[in-house]
Write a structure and sequence with these properties.
It is a single chain. This protein is of the alpha/beta class. It has four domains: 83 residues, GMP Synthetase, Chain A, domain 3 (2-Layer Sandwich); 178 residues, 3-Layer(aba) Sandwich (Rossmann fold), CATH 3.40.50.300; 81 residues, Helicase, Ruva Protein, domain 3 (Orthogonal Bundle), CATH 1.10.8.60; 93 residues, DnaA protein, C-terminal DNA-binding domain (Chromosomal Replication Initiator Protein Dnaa, Chain: A, Orthogonal Bundle). 47% of the residues lie in helices and 8% in strands. It is built from 24 helices and ten strands. Strands 7-8-9-6-10 form a five-stranded parallel beta sheet, with helices on both faces. The protein has a three-stranded mixed beta sheet with strand order 1-2-3, sandwiched between helices. The two termini are 20 Å apart. The structure holds adenosine-5'-triphosphate. Adenosine-5'-triphosphate binds next to α10 and α17. Keywords: ATP-binding, Cytoplasm, DNA replication, DNA-binding, Lipid-binding, Nucleotide-binding. It comes from Adlercreutzia muris. GO terms for molecular function: ATP binding; DNA replication origin binding; lipid binding.
């Protein structure tokens, strides 16, 4: 189910829950705004919560009404599972930073639109929960746990808690999960020594010597006297260096051939921020392959190992919005822009996620470009991520070369061993975090989940969660079988179950579609009528299968460079050729349904 449909379904469920007379609409609104739907299928709904407190509260008070709503709406009983998503707060904060007016504390962003209280004529967004009026402290622990200000773990420089009456303190104090998940000093094996697919527990030597950068960075100057000063909001997920906010660490990152180089470079940067040639470190790859995980792992490692260094984590949208706010206020209030610049320039390590979103934003690019120059020339580390290589982002050449200066590294879709490693390690993690005790998924089931999943590890993890909850709900009835997992996950992966598709299936479909013979498709012929279908077939293999490029090449009697060339050729055509777009869509449908 795509996320738009899922959000609509969740919206309907929320409406239904609020329609029950025993429900307090404002309470429901407050708590449900801290949930996000992750997956829904025939009898299963999976949600994630900001933190452990919200999870427990919702489990105790709202799972039953949600189940009642699902029964009323769908006519069948549902299992409702809630997990904790450590990245949720940061994403909400990013959205909040993007929409908050200048100078106002950013409210927690609503993850989706939900109905207002009963009687409201039109659906409203979930209102952010406001702290007790006029109070610097929450009225009760519940308010503290729900407070949107909890999204920001560290005080914003130049905007200390005392100057911010809404601040309710550090979320980690009310978030046992965050504390429990704080990374132990990560460990790693010797270079290249990580077995394919196995979780890694080794330690980078911390003795990196002195690190360039400010030992005790001064807070940027903020003119506390003027009330309408531009006060940039803390960037999404910005953390104080000694206050890691994420459970993403090197030790729970599973290494395989698809991500080993990226992992090794990330460790190198974490060990010696600003001191290696990897500056900026640019990590790219498709969605859900672990880019943010690696960036957060670097940040957490630095927070543990070099607590005097100040790290700043922000995504491209947030910094764009902050810059727009700062520059808009610039004429009126000169300190606005200065505060914005100073905040970033004083970072010892700056992380910018999703830099492809800078495309077309020339003014922001310009300021980011200056910022990168300032930071890297001073010896501060910069880490960037994107969903594609710098040269494919469509940027001016000087930006491209700035981004690519520290040898960009990609993460490829995981192979089967890596996926199996993730199934095993994430099952163990769930046992610990969800208190499942010993959760034994048979080897067949584990392998089956790894085989049918696509390349998106986020989807793989939610599939494991679903199976794990199903197995625990079975109680004495025995272990979940491969057959049960098959029907449980039938509609789970956005690309369908990938096990059924092979290179041969794709070749057959393309041959029939374009009326070319198999010997021509995989043979030496170079006429356009053969080369085009060949490019398309290779492209489809890259899109639909988790196979290394070299292996795909072999199936076409070619090497990996042909695979790269064919993929790029089709990607370029897809940008403006509607006929090719529709051919590719139809072929994917034919192949999936064959
Ligand atoms: N190698 C890995 N080992 C363990 N977990 C992983 C690995 N790669 C990704 N994940 C998990 O998959 C999920 C998605 O990862 P992440 O958010 O880092 O992806 P991303 O590449 O940044 O995606 P996007 O571009 O959509 O933001 C996270 O839960 C992350 O922990």
């Amino acid at each position: 189910m795509d996320s738009e449909k899922l959000n609509q379904q969740w919206h309907t469920i929320c409406t239904q829950v609020m329609s029950y007379p025993d429900m307090d609409a404002s309470q429901v609104t407050a708590f449900f705004s801290r949930l996000e739907p992750q997956a829904m299928s025939d009898s299963f709904l999976m949600l994630t919560a900001d933190n452990d407190f919200i999870k427990s509260w919702v489990e105790q008070h709202y799972v039953e009404p949600i189940q009642r709503a699902l029964l009323d709406l769908c006519g069948i009983p549902f299992t409702v599972a809630i997990a904790i998503d450590p990245g949720q707060e940061a994403r909400k904060a990013a959205a909040a930073a993007g929409s908050s007016p200048s100078g106002a504390p950013a409210p927690a962003a609503a993850p989706m639109s939900v109905p207002g209280s009963p009687g409201a004529t039109a659906p409203a967004s979930f209102p952010a929960v406001t702290p007790a009026a006029g109070a610097g402290t929450p009225a009760n622990p519940l308010a503290a746990a729900l407070s949107p200000t909890n999204a920001y773990p560290a005080p914003w420089p130049g905007n200390p808690p005392a100057a911010n009456p809404g601040a309710l303190g550090n979320p980690s104090s009310s978030d046992p999960a965050a504390t429990a998940n704080a990374p132990a000093t990560p460990t790693m094996p010797p270079w290249g020594d990580a077995g394919g697919g196995a979780p890694v527990n080794g330690t980078p030597a911390a003795g990196a010597g002195g690190v360039h950068g400010t030992e005790h960075p001064a807070a940027p100057t903020a003119d506390a006297g003027a009330e309408d000063h531009y006060r940039p909001q803390p960037p999404a997920g910005a953390v104080g260096t000694s206050n890691p906010c994420s459970a993403y660490t090197f030790s729970n990152f599973v290494i395989g051939s698809s991500n080993r180089l990226a992992y090794q470079m990330a460790v190198q940067v974490a060990e010696q921020p600003g001191r290696s040639a990897l500056n900026p470190l640019f990590i790219y790859g498709k969605s859900g392959l672990g880019k943010t995980h690696l960036m957060r792992a670097i940040q957490n490692y630095i927070g543990e190992t070099y607590p005097h260094l100040r790290t700043v984590f922000v995504d491209a949208d947030s910094i764009t919005n902050e810059y727009a706010e700062a520059s808009a206020a610039h004429d009126r209030e000169k300190s606005s822009f200065k505060n914005f610049k100073t905040f970033y320039e004083e970072a010892d390590v700056l992380f910018i996620d999703d830099v492809q979103k800078f495309q077309g934003k020339e003014r922001t690019l310009d300021i980011v470009f200056q910022l990168l120059n300032t930071l890297t020339s001073r010896g501060s580390q910069v880490v960037l991520s994107a969903d594609r290589a710098p040269k494919s982002i469509g940027l001016d050449e000087r930006y491209q070369s700035r981004f690519a200066a520290g040898s960009p590294v990609d993460i490829q879709p995981p192979d089967i061993e890596t996926k199996l490693g993730i199934v095993k390690s994430f099952t163990d993690e769930l046992c610990r975090s969800e208190g499942f005790g010993h959760l034994a998924l048979s080897n067949d089931v584990q392998l089956y989940i790894a085989e049918i999943s696509g390349s998106n590890i986020r989807e793989l993890k939610s599939a494991i969660t679903k199976v794990a909850f199903y197995q625990t709900s079975m109680g004495e009835r025995g272990d979940v079988t491969v057959e049960e997992v098959r029907s449980l996950l039938e509609n789970h992966f956005s690309g369908g179950l990938s096990r059924t598709v092979t290179v041969e299936d794709i070749q057959r479909a393309v041959e029939e579609y374009y009326k070319v013979s198999h010997s021509d498709l995989v043979g030496p012929a170079r006429s356009r009528t053969i080369v085009h279908p060949r490019h398309i077939a290779v492209y489809l293999c890259r899109q639909m299968l988790d196979m290394p490029q070299g292996d795909i090449g072999k199936k076409f009697n070619r090497d990996h460079s042909t695979v790269i060339h064919s993929t790029r050729t089709v990607e370029a055509m897809l940008e403006d050729n509607m006929e090719v777009q529709s051919d590719v869509e139809r072929l994917m449908k034919i192949i999936r349904e064959s």
